[in-house]
Amino acid sequence: MIVELITTGSELLLGQIVNTNAAWMAQKLNEIGFDVCYQTTVGDNRARMEETVRHALTRANIIITSGGLGPTRGDITKEVCADVFGRALSLNEECAERLKENFRRREKEMTENNLRQAMIPEGAKILVNHAGTAPGIVLEEGDKVIINLPGPPHEMKDMFTRSVVPYLAEKFGLDAVIISRVLDTYGIGESQLETKIQDLILAQKNPTLALLCRPTGNIIRITAKAKTRSEAESLIAPVESEIRSRVSDFIYAVDDEPMEEIVGKLLKEKRLTIAAAESCTGGLFTSRLTDVAGASEYVKGSIVSYTLAVKEKALGVKKSTLDEHGAVSEQAAREMAEGARSAMSSDIAVAITGNAGPSPSEGKPIGLVYVAVAGERGTVCEKNILSGKRAQIKFSASQSAMNMVRRYLLGEI
Amino acid sequence: MIVELITTGSELLLGQIVNTNAAWMAQKLNEIGFDVCYQTTVGDNRARMEETVRHALTRANIIITSGGLGPTRGDITKEVCADVFGRALSLNEECAERLKENFRRREKEMTENNLRQAMIPEGAKILVNHAGTAPGIVLEEGDKVIINLPGPPHEMKDMFTRSVVPYLAEKFGLDAVIISRVLDTYGIGESQLETKIQDLILAQKNPTLALLCRPTGNIIRITAKAKTRSEAESLIAPVESEIRSRVSDFIYAVDDEPMEEIVGKLLKEKRLTIAAAESCTGGLFTSRLTDVAGASEYVKGSIVSYTLAVKEKALGVKKSTLDEHGAVSEQAAREMAEGARSAMSSDIAVAITGNAGPSPSEGKPIGLVYVAVAGERGTVCEKNILSGKRAQIKFSASQSAMNMVRRYLLGEI
């Protein structure tokens, strides 16, 4: 069963609002095993909307629209879809009564145009709107189905859950569930990652494999379709472990658990505290750590040293180090980490120093970032060359530092 | 000129990510007078993508795609569009060189599949990617144009602004312009704001007025349509000054200039340096300050004091103050600001201490945040009661602190 979602409304076309309805419906439909193959957005223009619906019927079995069921002249979705199936509209007494009742309850006066919402195409199934006034519509013609849902997200979602899912289940049967498992990696490029699992990607059927770039790192998504959730999970399991056997070093999370939460959990488990010395990240690393509720259990603090003076005074970095190697150097990073550790008497301390751009400094290239982690087992330092604009470099540097802490805590470095 | 946007990728179809690219492009295209009449999303399926592109060509003059330009086998947008126009792809030496250089710079190993990004359809215009590796493509055929842009938002936006807008302007000319003027406010509620300008909102025609809530504060958008930019601007000017005459105290920026840039400019102008002492914001305030290129000219550093010990040791907050008033108090905020100022010998210092949640601490309610600014003119402190979840409270606290610095620098407090 191929589904096309058609979202209508000029605010979508003008980009004044982001299309969250399409994403939400797509996710729900996929969860119950329906393939959404197309999403189309069109404005409240009769000719264009009609052409869009007619074309959708040539490539999809189930068409679900959202938007354009309101009381104004601009709301034409229901009429257009009825036309396409050659159905006339007439006033539905039940709907009219429900409308009037709704207005009585809210002590609002009902204007004539509101009755447009009670105009129903012949032969339509009516979906009661429990969150608003516009009823939803189901039109069946041969093996094709058009479902009209309201545009306001809370109305659409309520109607979708209450009425659309049961309808689809009854009419088409829910013969499958689709579930995804995401493996979050850090420190390996997309192309390198693909090379390592290319054979699996080429051989993919069910489950399918997808590689995606995220600011947090590249992710591998394993998606399986099966009769039951547990069946789907058991299809995913062997593929996941095969992938893990090849790139385990780079996998830091599953299903997009944020790095800061993973680091936080490790620190809690091991009852360790952390401090930081940040230069190019300007506080971002510690801010992300403290995004996690309960971070005060393990975060002692951070010194953002944006000047040489602060590096010397607050972190005790040797003047000679800064003179000989510069602030963006392995030596400086190591001394910053050790300085932060003793200044805030934490078990572990991280230092991040680099050049976030926009221009080279100390003759050091943009994106060059040193990260050092100091702890009981001594101090380790890694060199990163990060790409992107200032904000991306800052974020990548913070992510890279978190990943180093994670590996340090796990004894991997 | 009718534009159709085609966004590709299974993560969009599956609803795993919301389609922000389509909204962003639609907005930009509308601003320069192009009508986006259709937005279509299709997966990385060759047959379906090709059908979608062919159909788009029957109803639009300009087709802009985003996504599917990566190095992997799943990335097929460029090939599909080239096929539709019957163009062969071949390796473009310049693109290949740029790719290799990019990898060299990042000291990353380049795998073979990366070269797929340097395969260019014959007769294509190449759009250089300044934010990533995949070049953009422009294909012209008769009066039809297909433009392929990368999927990662920061790459797409950079390329759209640098290359697509100038290209469209030159090729099609811009017959009407729609421009918006945004007035950014802080410290005034939406309803209060509406009350102050209600008569203008009711009387609106061209320009139109819109009030929108943003995490950064409420904004007023004035949008005018005219033949020329200067005409549109002269429609906006009188409305803007009328609004300013009513709510000038709350307007801190125009056209969404970030607060951190405004504060940075003021500090530069006045040749003053700044330091911070952050508790509940965990470094976010200083991180935002340092998002601005050249921040090192005026940012000395910050001490993120997440524990009482650090507040005492690094900032010299009196133990008696913490005992009597607690860390979330006006007294602590003042001492933190003054401590940061002397510790990092800055002209101005800010302190932020509060409870970001999720649970009350020291019996202080969630959202209670004290901000103090210390400088030559003495120390001022303000109490904020902020709402929302932890992340929102952190951001609002940082925004409120920036606004206080701005007002302090302007002599308003």
- Would you state the CATH class of the largest domain in chain A? Alpha Beta
User: What are the low-pLDDT stretches of chain A, counting only 5+ consecutive residues below 50?
Assistant: none
DSSP strand (E) fraction of chain A? 25-35%
> What is the CA-CA span between the terminal residues of chain A?
50 Å
Secondary structure tally, helices of chain A: 14
Please state the CA-atom Rg of chain A, rounded to the nearest Å: 28 Å
Largest sheet of chain A: 6 strands, mixed
* CATH topology grouping of the largest domain in chain A: Molybdenum Cofactor Biosythetic Enzyme, Chain A
Return the domain count of chain A. 3
CATH architecture of the largest domain in chain A: 3-Layer(aba) Sandwich
Broad shape of chain A: elongated
Biggest interface and its residues per chain? A-B, 91 and 88 residues
Sheet/helix structural class of chain A: alpha/beta
Q: Would you tell me the overall average pLDDT of chain A?
A: 93
CATH superfamily assignment of the largest domain in chain A? MoaB/Mog-like domain
The strands making up the biggest β-sheet of chain A line up spatially as 2-1-3-8-7-6
**Chain oligomer state:** homodimer
Write a short abstract of this structure.
2 copies of one chain form a homodimer. With about 425 residues, the first copy, chain A, is of the alpha/beta class.
Report on the architecture of this protein:
The structure is a homodimer of 413-residue chains. The mean pLDDT of chain A is 93. In chain A, a hairpin with a 2-residue loop joins strand 10 (208-214) and strand 11 (217-226). Chain A has 14 helices and 17 strands. In chain A, the strands form four sheets. Chain A has a six-stranded mixed β-sheet with strand order 2-1-3-8-7-6, sandwiched between helices. Chain A has three domains: 2-172, 3-Layer(aba) Sandwich (Molybdenum Cofactor Biosythetic Enzyme, Chain A); 177-254, 2-Layer Sandwich (Alpha-Beta Plaits), CATH 3.30.70; 259-409, Alpha-Beta Complex (Maf protein), CATH 3.90.950. With 413 residues, chain A is an alpha/beta fold. Chain A is elongated. Chain A has helices at 10-13, 20-31, 46-59, 77-84, 93-105, 153-172, 190-203, 229-247, 259-269, 284-289, 308-315, 319-325, 330-343, 390-409; strands at residues 2-8, 35-42, 62-66, 89-91, 119-121, 125-127, 136-141, 144-149, 177-185, 208-214, 217-226, 251-254, 274-278, 299-305, 348-354, 368-375, 378-385. Chains A and B meet through helix 2, strand 2, helix 3, helix 7 and strand 10 of A and helix 1, helix 2, strand 2, helix 3 and helix 10 of B.
